[in-house]
Amino acid sequence: MASPRPTSLRPTPLREVSTLLGAPGPASDVAVTGVTLDSRAVRPGDLYAALPGARAHGADFGAQVAEAGAAAVLTDPAGAERLTAAGVDLPVVVVEAPRAVLGAVAARVYGTEDLPVRMVGITGTNGKTTTAYLVHSALTALGHSVGLIGTVETRIGDERVGSVRTTPEAPELHALLAVMAERGLDTCVMEVSSHALAQHRVDGVVYDVALFTNLSRDHLDFHADMDDYFAAKASLFTPERARLGLVCTDDDWGGRLAREAGVPVRTIGHTEGVDWRVAVDGADPAAFRLTGPDGVDLHLRSSLPGDFNVTNTAMAAAALVLAGEDPARAGDAVLADPHVPGRMERVVLDGVPAGDQPLAVVDYAHTPDAIAAALHALRPSTPGTLVCVTGAGGDRDRDKRAAMGAAAAEVADLVVVTDDNPRSEDPAVIRAAVLEGVESVRSGGRAVRVVEVGDRREAVREAVSAVAAEGSSATVAVVGKGHERGQDVAGVVHPFDDRDELREALALALGVVAP
Ligand SMILES: CC(=O)N[C@H]1[C@@H](OP(=O)(O)OP(=O)(O)OC[C@H]2O[C@@H](n3ccc(=O)[nH]c3=O)[C@H](O)[C@@H]2O)O[C@H](CO)[C@@H](O)[C@@H]1O[C@H](C)C(=O)N[C@@H](C)C(=O)N[C@H](CCC(=O)O)C(=O)O
Ligand SMILES: Nc1ncnc2c1ncn2[C@@H]1O[C@H](COP(=O)(O)OP(=O)(O)OP(=O)(O)O)[C@@H](O)[C@H]1O
Ligand SMILES: N[C@H](CCC[C@H](N)C(=O)O)C(=O)O
Ligand SMILES: [Mg+2]
């Protein structure tokens, strides 16, 4: 579905754009009414940003955008040459690095330079989506009109649009923020990925509160190394992008960020000396105490399973207070279950007593750290067999694959290695890398069983049937795809939903439907 755009916009003279950029003004006095960087999304009157990329140069789509009614093009010198060579007759603004100015241009065209919407931005390797839902649901409970932008979806009040990426490109983002302002929303909570920070997607947005959850191995296909990955995340904590930071210092990267941030930072975590201290209270692992500045002392309980969700809930509560909410009311508001799709989501087969079915969970863990966290969260409630169905994505960080297999094998009793969006790669090669990690744990002496089942549907069925006889003392955790609704194989996305597959597998194994 097309991303929403604001309805009432003042057309922006192209000369105003070139003046903003200090670029030579075009002879034409055309005005623009929108911005896009995707030729397929051009609407009449748009300024099309033709950017150089890894696979194409946006200027190669000049003829299509002219045909679609684009009013003008913003590009680099190479793009301008291509447009001329292709005989594209549109006014062109040329700058050396168009991606780097796109946020400012989009903010001018969509009128979001002085945004009347409070902004909360969340970055970190794991926990962004969960924490964003926690903040969103709490603010909604407190009576605010809240927008959400993240991996699963964009929400503008009651309107929901499924996401393609975690963080939209700048033109789409500023259009969404303009729509939120137009509809009277007072706050927007959004996930800010490292790709987005490195690619200027959130330029022109200043977060009132920016959160850092944690940093661990991921995306090293895109970032040169962990320092480079950290630097991308840290760039959120600079005056151009944030006013105040809330940094979890439970890992060393958070500690480093708290020392190096270019904006005032409050720290949060389980260790002494932090501004917001999380202390788990006694026997219930979900219950905790959160103490903060100015005598804030809250007794809270995470509605989601796992130690990491204690941290996510604590971060949400502290973020609400830093964003100006009353601490006691904020504490009450984070107690409700925010229903985060595909994050530790339980799948239950109706019509079969709970004690007769394995605990079945779908989770989006797709990094070594997240897999470890998710399985550790499930281990204490699993007296019987803990099965993990896992795979790794194609065309993504290759070196995390073995570590993901090892993380699963360290905690589970049975690991079923399968496919997860092989994309353009050979799925068997990806599975082999995951299996290597499992084998490294087995050769270290841990008696974990492993099977390789490429077809994900068969893998889920095999996992469930292996433990169905144990009833609720067993757990099947299917990780990696969470809310996703497709399996990308060689560029074709086949409909696939782990939650439906798990329900089907339970039905088959428990004899509720004929196989
Ligand atoms: C590494 C990365 O993020 N690349 C993004 C980047 O690609 P690129 O600069 O190489 O562009 P390209 O594909 O060569 O195309 C060049 C230009 O031509 C344009 N084009 C291209 C084809 C066409 O038909 N028409 C057209 O106009 C493109 O919009 C682009 O401006 O700009 C493209 C245009 O917006 C994105 O589609 C592309 O995202 C790719 C597909 C992607 O998979 N990104 C993922 C890794 C990502 O961003 N993930 C993060 C984090 C995920 C997480 O939460 O863990 C996210 O925020 O989602
Ligand atoms: N604070 C946390 N620390 C470690 N692991 C976590 C944390 N929160 C969630 N996880 C694990 O990481 C997985 C992804 O969580 P979530 O979707 O909230 O993170 P994300 O940062 O939005 O991820 P992505 O960048 O892929 O969208 C969860 O399914 C869970 O297994
Ligand atoms: N949104 C992230 C995670 C996808 C998780 C997994 N399902 C995969 O395909 O690797 C990405 O695009 O890297
Ligand atoms: Mg996310």
TrEMBL record:
The modification N6-carboxylysine is found at K233. It is found in: Cytoplasm. Its main location: cytoplasm. ATP binds at G124, T125, N126, G127, K128, T129, T130. The keyword Plastid does not apply. Pathway: Cell wall biogenesis; peptidoglycan biosynthesis. A motif (Meso-diaminopimelate recognition motif) lies at residues 420-423. Residues 122-319 form the Mur ligase central domain. Its cofactor is Mg(2+). UDP-N-acetyl-alpha-D-muramoyl-L-alanyl-D-glutamate binds at L37, S39, T166, T167, S193, Q199, R201. PANTHER family: MUR LIGASE FAMILY MEMBER, UDP-N-ACETYLMURAMOYL-L-ALANYL-D-GLUTAMATE--2,6-DIAMINOPIMELATE LIGASE MURE HOMOLOG, CHLOROPLASTIC. This is UDP-N-acetylmuramoyl-L-alanyl-D-glutamate--2,6-diaminopimelate ligase. The gene is murE.
